[in-house]
């Protein structure tokens, strides 16, 4: 039976091929099929290679000899000659390197070639591209991987592809000037982020067919516009010049760009009022002039009547928002970080389509204007960091997803209408909002980030909070007046990363159900009245990095459980101001694997954060408290001060070489300072004051060159204070209350030459303090504005497990990501 089937099948395919080859004489030529197959075999298929794509699939997967290559996915042949003329392999999961011998170059009739969004990392693009594929009309190689072209090839490419219409080399490292010898047929040139330098040849603006020119993210490329009417005026639709080198003003000739739909002149050092020639752009739909120095009011212009998206973020514009009354098409407005003031127009009635409104960091005051609450289509609203006052009204929009009203002077309760089902990001922190937290908050099934911190909320935490849908990542109710026990059960399978209930009046125990928060990274229950023993079991939360239980009524000895896998990721442990007793928890300290290495991986410090939230906690370092600060990944702190710990200081603390701050003060510790502390080579702050520590200060501590603050006062130390380096900079107060200590800076001499601190050294010291590990500016800049932009887009990306690269985000990266993301997803 089976045999018959096979024979029949073979016969069938044979006949089919016969039939096909006779009926359609222009099958894909054999040599071209072979070339394509050879090309296919040079690459592996890896979905990660196309992870920037909205949709992607492995087009080459089913290419095989038994079918006509003209029918292969992504391959198109000329109907008459059967030659392969188009190859579209964008977002095709290809990973590997191009070789200069690539068989692809035999497809000399190719007119269209699209390789964008695959992973060809490290492949130099061969000159053969140019010489063999000289009939190309369209070439797309752009992607976000590391691909380089090099100056020589770029010049060759432009010179030799004389038929070229479209060139997309986005994010390819070209690192060259732009030659002026190129195809006069060009319609589309996409060269953003290609490290171009030199001066853009004026000829581009005179290409009569040019429709789209994107040279963004080429800060070294100098752009000057022709002062007379451009030959491309009637054809140019898109002009993207974000972050190119442009100095000067927009010439009158800009007025003739009547076809222009999209203009991006962000980050191009524009100054003065919004340039006049722009008012003539009657077709403009998208206008980005963000990150410039524009000033003055935004005039009442009816001219941009087609405008849908407007970003003037980060300029110095002032005046009010009256101009909004005249424009009804707007969908997206970003006026954040300007100096806009009230009063605001009260009768804006249009804006039926407005979905995104960002007005953060201006000087807007008074009540939030009622037209904002009335916007029917609003999705994202950011009014943070203004001085709006009064109550939050009912929102008309049923599609609100992202709301940040952070840092205003709003008062009154949270309106129930705000808690609609599409909401997933709600930040109301740093206002005077009062009342109870309604349990209807628990019904928000999409909620990811809920930040109600620093308000006047009172009553208990709704019992249902721990059972909110598993989307919830961050729960911040810190610095309110919440009382009662934490009477909620955190459900199994939750996604919580951050729980901060810091600074309330919570009583009772640390809820045992926290053990269900498998992803918990930050737990801050500090400054409450919790009465419990040490929750050793929290050590099983393998992601926990920050544990802050300071200033509670926690008590008793901290027992060893014998399990050495507890708290392995912890980098901040603050148990200060409690009633803990017994020996220092040597076994727990011994488990802190994260602190046993020095984080030297990156030169620019990174914060602990996720895409929605920069992790904040209260820390004490160098003798100072810092409230709600961002935390660098390299910042490692142990604070066990103000308890009743007794016994000796375990020398194994010396293994925690990543420690920056160690505070064991105000306990009843005795014995010596372990010499092993000399291994704490990045230690910046050491406080052992007010204990019963005896013996001499180990001379080896002089090797701690980062030590800025030392407090050994009020102990029983004796002998000579170490000399040299940092030790020359500590004053009397570091040592007072130790009757047996001698040497600089104390008046009792030690014998030998006491070194004198020179002013030069002091200067150096001060300089070092200018780069503290925790910088207030950093704290303020990073949180609040900036993050909210396009969050609904991030949400979609996140919820589809989209970009792995979102897990890390420092300021620079954040900028890069938001700009790139805007560029790809939203900016245009
Ligand atoms: C060849 O491609 C055809 C069509 O896509 C597919 O059905 C067939 O299974 C493939 N054969 C091999 C050997 O991969
Ligand atoms: C091209 O060269 C590489 C190494 O340079 C080699 O591995 C590969 O087999 C060659 N491919 C063809 C099609 O000749
Ligand atoms: C340009 O293309 C022509 C025609 O395909 C080719 O003969 C020539 O070698 C190419 N020039 C360079 C410099 O590659
Ligand atoms: C781009 O290429 C140039 C020259 O080849 C090189 O100096 C530069 O570092 C490259 N840039 C990046 C970001 O790789
Ligand atoms: C541009 O290139 C073409 C073909 O290579 C050549 O004939 C012409 O002279 C060049 N023009 C300039 C201005 O370099
Ligand atoms: C930017 O352009 C100005 C002149 O317009 C020039 O002086 C400056 O060197 C250019 N900067 C860079 C980085 O190319
Ligand atoms: C602009 O177009 C006109 C008419 O086609 C032509 O004469 C002129 O040379 C062009 N200007 C430039 C700078 O290419
Ligand atoms: C631009 O607009 C101004 C004022 O409306 C007008 O006087 C001027 O002629 C316009 N320029 C062009 C080139 O259309
Ligand atoms: C920006 O423009 C101002 C003048 O408006 C100029 O002084 C400054 O050098 C420019 N900055 C850059 C980076 O080009
Ligand atoms: C708040 O706005 C002011 C200007 O109004 C700005 O200087 C400050 O940096 C902003 N703060 C934050 C956190 O964005
Ligand atoms: C916790 O909440 C439940 C249900 O609301 C209630 O019955 C119980 O008394 C509460 N327990 C405490 C200690 O408040
Ligand atoms: C903690 O609770 C226990 C009993 O539940 C009580 O005896 C003790 O006084 C409480 N401690 C503090 C500091 O309130």
UniProtKB/TrEMBL annotation:
One of its GO terms (cellular component) is plasma membrane. It is a single-pass type I membrane protein. InterPro entries: Leu-rich_rpt, Leu-rich_rpt_typical-subtyp, LRR_dom_sf, LRR_N_plant-typ, RLP23-like. Its main location: membrane. The chain crosses the membrane at residues 774-798. It comes from the Eukaryota. It is found in: Cell membrane. Residues 30-78 form the Leucine-rich repeat-containing N-terminal plant-type domain. One of its GO terms (biological process) is defense response to fungus. Residues 1-21 form the signal peptide. It holds the Pfam family LRRNT_2. The keyword Membrane applies. Keywords: Cell membrane, Glycoprotein, Leucine-rich repeat, Membrane, Repeat, Signal, Transmembrane, Transmembrane helix. SUPFAM superfamilies: L domain-like. Belongs to the RLP family. This is Leucine-rich repeat-containing N-terminal plant-type domain-containing protein. It comes from Solanum lycopersicum. The lineage of its organism: Eukaryota, Viridiplantae, Streptophyta, Embryophyta, Tracheophyta.
């Amino acid at each position: 039976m089976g045999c018959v089937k096979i024979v029949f099948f073979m016969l069938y395919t044979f006949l089919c091929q016969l039939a096909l080859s006779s009926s359609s004489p222009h099958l894909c030529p054999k040599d071209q099929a072979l070339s394509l197959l050879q090309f296919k075999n040079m690459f592996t298929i890896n979905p990660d290679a196309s992870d920037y794509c909205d949709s992607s699939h492995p087009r080459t997967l089913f290419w095989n000899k038994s079918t006509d290559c003209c029918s292969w996915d992504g391959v198109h042949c000329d109907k008459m000659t059967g030659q392969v003329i188009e190859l579209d392999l964008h977002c095709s999961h290809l990973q590997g390197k191009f070789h200069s011998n690539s068989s692809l170059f035999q497809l000399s009739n190719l007119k269209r070639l699209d390789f964008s969004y695959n992973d060809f990392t490290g492949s130099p693009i061969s000159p053969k591209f140019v010489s063999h594929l000289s009939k190309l009309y369209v070439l797309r190689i752009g992607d976000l991987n590391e691909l380089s072209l090099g100056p020589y090839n770029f010049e060759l490419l432009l010179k030799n592809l004389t038929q070229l219409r479209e060139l997309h080399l986005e994010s390819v490292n070209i690192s060259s000037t732009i030659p002026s010898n190129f195809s006069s047929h060009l319609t589309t040139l996409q060269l953003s982020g290609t490290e171009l330098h030199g001066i853009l040849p004026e000829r581009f603006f005179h290409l009569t067919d040019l429709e789209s020119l994107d040279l963004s993210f080429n800060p070294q490329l100098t752009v000057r516009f022709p002062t007379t009417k451009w030959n491309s005026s009637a054809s140019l639709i898109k002009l993207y010049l974000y972050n190119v080198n442009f100095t000067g003003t927009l010439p009158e000739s800009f007025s003739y760009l009547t076809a222009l739909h999209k203009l991006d002149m962000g980050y191009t050092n524009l100054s003065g009022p919004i340039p006049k020639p722009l008012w003539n752009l009657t077709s403009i739909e998208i206008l980005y002039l963000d990150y410039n120095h524009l000033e003055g009011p935004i005039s009442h212009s009816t001219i941009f009547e087609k405008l849908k998206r407007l970003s003037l973020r980060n300029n110095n514009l002032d005046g009010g928002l009256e101009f909004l009354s005249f424009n009804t098409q707007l969908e997206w407005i970003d006026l954040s970080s300007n100096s806009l003031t009230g009063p605001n127009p009260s009768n804006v009635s249009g804006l039926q389509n407005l979905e995104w409104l960002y007005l953060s960091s201006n000087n807007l005051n008074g009540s939030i204007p009622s037209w904002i609450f009335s916007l029917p289509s609003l999705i994202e609203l950011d009014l943070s960091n203004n001085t709006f006052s009064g109550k939050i009204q009912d929102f008309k929009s049923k599609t609100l997803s992202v709301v940040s009203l952070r840092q205003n002077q709003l008062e009154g309760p949270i309106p129930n209408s705000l808690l609609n089902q599409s909401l997933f990001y709600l930040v109301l922190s740093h206002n005077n909002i009062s009342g109870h937290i309604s349990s209807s908050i628990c019904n928000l099934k999409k909620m990811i980030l809920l930040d109600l911190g620093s308000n006047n909320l009172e009553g208990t935490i709704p019992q249902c909070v721990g059972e909110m849908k598993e989307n919830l990542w961050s729960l911040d109710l810190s610095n309110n007046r919440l009382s009662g026990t934490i009477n909620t059960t955190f459900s199994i399978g939750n996604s919580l990363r951050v729980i901060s209930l810091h600074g309330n009046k919570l009583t009772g125990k640390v809820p045992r159900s926290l053990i269900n928060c498998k992803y918990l990274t930050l737990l801050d229950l500090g400054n409450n009245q919790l009465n419990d023993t040490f929750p050793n079991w929290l050590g099983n939360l393998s992601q926990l990095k920050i544990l802050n239980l300071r200033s509670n009524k926690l008590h008793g000895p901290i027992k060893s459980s014998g399990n050495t896998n507890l708290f392995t990721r912890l980098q901040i442990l603050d148990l200060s101001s409690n009633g803990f007793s017994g020996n220092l928890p040597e076994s727990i300290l011994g488990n802190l694997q994260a602190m046993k290495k020095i984080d030297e991986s990156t030169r620019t410090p990174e914060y602990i954060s996720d895409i929605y939230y920069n992790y904040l906690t209260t820390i004490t370092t160098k003798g100072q408290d810092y409230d709600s600060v961002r935390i660098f990944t390299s910042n490692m702190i142990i604070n066990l001060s103000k308890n009743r710990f007794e016994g000796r200081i375990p020398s194994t603390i010396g293994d925690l070489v990543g420690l920056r701050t160690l505070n064991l003060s105000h306990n009843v510790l005795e014995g010596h300072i372990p010499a092993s502390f000399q291994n704490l080579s990045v230690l910046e702050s050491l406080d052992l004051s007010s204990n019963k520590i005896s013996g001499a200060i180990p001379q080896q501590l002089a090797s701690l060159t980062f030590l800025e603050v030392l407090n050994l006062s009020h102990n029983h130390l004796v002998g000579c204070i170490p000399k040299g380096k940092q030790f020359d900079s500590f004053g009397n107060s570091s040592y007072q209350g130790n009757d047996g200590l001698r040497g600089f800076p104390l008046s009792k001499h030690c014998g030998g030459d006491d070194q004198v601190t020179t002013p030069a050294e002091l200067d150096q010291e001060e300089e070092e303090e200018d780069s503290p590990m925790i910088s207030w500016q950093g704290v303020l800049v990073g949180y609040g504005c900036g993050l909210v932009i396009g969050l609904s887009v991030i949400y979609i990306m996140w919820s589809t497990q989209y970009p792995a690269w979102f897990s890390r985000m420092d300021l620079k990266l954040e900028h890069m990501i938001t700009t790139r993301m805007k560029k790809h997803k939203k900016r245009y």
